[in-house]
Amino acid sequence: MTTTSRKTALLLLDLQNEMVDPEGKIGGGGLAKVCAERNVVANAARALGAARERGLPVAHVRLGFRPDYADALSVAPRIEKLKQNKAAIAGTWGTEFPEPLTPKEGELLVTKQCVNPFFNTGLMNWLFANGVGHVVLGGVVTNLVVEMTTRAADDAGFAVTVLEDCCAAPNPDWHRFSVENIIPMFGSVSSVDAFVAGRG
């Protein structure tokens, strides 16, 4: 079955204030600057508008923890850094979205506590319940949540398309390596223009 014959959903991954705004505790470390240079928010907003016009299912995924981080299962060093900075605490500005990407009523909002958006969330069940067979992805960081989602979605039998110009990493080499070498093994790489034109 080709991607054109499968029901498509748009998943926007971690495009929240903490990541994409220069005032964000993660974005301020350089990610927001790269996002601005790549027009990630504006590009994602174009993709979101196209999905809404076509009546496609849309899910907004964000990273968000309890204030005490008791729900953070990972013991990786990056999580300790989040704790030290009190970053991505649910209910704060950092876990909300920039205005162009504000979820609308009827769109799924998923809060996760790890890289994989399918772990301990209802996202996978929501996709199956909506008859989705093809997921289109955009988000940050490319080599973390975007790559992880691509791998996990492929494992679950979904066709995957990554909108390269809706993604960014703080190190451009990480982004480039992921979209050129890793993601193509599990899905396809496309652009917002192609998605808007109905080709992705």
TrEMBL record:
Coiled-coil zones: none
Residues in Isochorismatase-like domain copies: 8-193
Keyword field contains Hydrolase: yes
Keywords linked to the UniProt accession: Hydrolase
GO MF annotations in UniProt: hydrolase activity
SUPFAM superfamilies: Isochorismatase-like hydrolases
Protein name, as recorded: Cysteine hydrolase
